[in-house]
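Sample log: DUF4136 domain-containing protein.
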Amino acid sequence: MTAFRLSPALLTLALLTGCAGYQVRYDYDVTATFARYKTFDYYTSKKGTGGTSSLMDTRVKAALERELQTKGYVLETKADPDFLVTYYPIVRERRYRTTTHVGGYWGWGFRPFYGGVGTSVSQVHSYKEGTIVIEIVDFKTNKLIWQGAADGALTGLSDPEDANEVVGRAVHDILAKFPPK
């Protein structure tokens, strides 16, 4: 029987690939009447830890407007809107450890029993994990009624074209459950 063993290089690649995706979550006020909301505007939140550029801010805002307008909501900047929306990044430093074993063997063979000395080398790697958070507040009551996030959506976006695609998809996926049925 042959044992399968993942090499350190493949393990590192698997860990980095796992960091490239995102997970969507959402929550909402079950007592809110979402059917009455037709117009929206933005408000500025002091939440989040920063870590994104104004270009990323522009990407997120454009994707957010596109998704809300696709759902039939109208951006209202001159009169009172039905709801306010904000978005912000949360950027955290994450770490993972890799260990490489070099040498060291034991076995049974030509000589009755043989072995050798080995060593292990461990390294700690770090990366920034970025999350997009979207919040929706009822304008009249100033009460949070809906919140969604894509954990990891802003992670590893070094190419502008990839960033446009991933951010657009993440905002779409976050708002897929808005409004709740």
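Observation: Residues 1-19 have pLDDT under 50 and may be disordered.
Observation: Strands lie at 23-28, 39-42, 74-75, 83-103, 106-107, 114-115, 118-138, 143-151.
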